[in-house]
Design brief:
single chain, Nucleotidyltransferase, domain 5, 5-stranded mixed beta sheet, 9 helices, 45% helix, DNA-binding
Length: 208
DNA sequence: TGCCAGGCCCTCTTTAGGGCCTT
């Protein structure tokens, strides 16, 4: 499958995990993702997964995912095999993508699977588009931009849905502000890695 | 032994330090 050129077609994903670092033994406990095509949500994926050990009370409290819920969940390998199929052929987006990419890479390494898309970070783009936001946490941006949400935070599918809303809002912002008809995924990646000061001039050049 | 993330980004910077963001 050929990767889409446009930023409006991608998969937005979010992991809940046992901690911050797969290199320190942390594992995924939930994956949530939404697939957008031409800016419309066309599919989603959600799965709890049993990491093989008890999660801390902090994680239970932070995510609302309890050890009882995980006791009956399939293992990480089973869920991640299905997820590897789901993401094939799509570019990938996450809020603070370096975190989710580390866990995706670590979990897929365990089942010897790879993905064909490339990542873009919604947080890095938001920092450049909305430099005056109070902060660039997902919840803060959702609130300040008045994006649709159901009040659920720190669950994988809910966070993926909110990140998708943020992503589409940022595309609208760019297209309106610079009168662009369609923003390539590669342009969003470029924005995420560009200094704040040079973003306007970069987009002006695209407009020209 | 004791400690333990990691990448981005700003600034009192680049021979560094600390805050932000993710769980």
């Amino acid at each position: 499958m050929t990767l889409s050129y446009a930023a409006h077609t991608a998969i937005i994903l979010d992991f809940e995990t046992t901690g911050l670092s797969p290199n320190m033994g942390d594992r995924a406990i939930e994956i949530g993702a939404v697939k957008i095509e031409q800016g419309q949500v066309v599919d989603h994926f959600q799965g709890l997964m049993n990491p093989g050990f008890r999660v801390s009370s902090f994680i239970e409290s932070y995510t609302g995912i309890t050890n009882n819920m995980l006791a009956t969940a399939p293992n990480c390998e089973t869920v991640m095999t299905e997820f590897a199929d789901f993401i094939q052929g799509y570019n990938l987006i996450a809020h603070n993508a370096s975190f989710d990419q580390r866990f995706l890479d670590a979990e897929l390494d365990r089942i010897n699977r790879r993905y064909s898309g490339s990542f873009c970070c919604s947080m890095l783009v938001a920092r450049r588009l909305y430099p005056h936001a109070t902060n660039h946490k997902l919840g803060t941006l959702v609130h300040q931009l008045a994006l649709e949400n159901d009040g659920t935070f720190h669950r994988a599918l809910a966070d993926a849905k909110m990140t998708a809303s943020l992503w589409c809002h940022m595309l609208d912002t760019i297209e309106d502000q610079y009168q662009l008809s369609s923003v390539p995924f590669s342009v969003m990646q470029k924005i995420s890695k560009t200094t704040k000061a040079s973003v306007p001039s970069y987009l002006q050049k695209l407009k020209a």
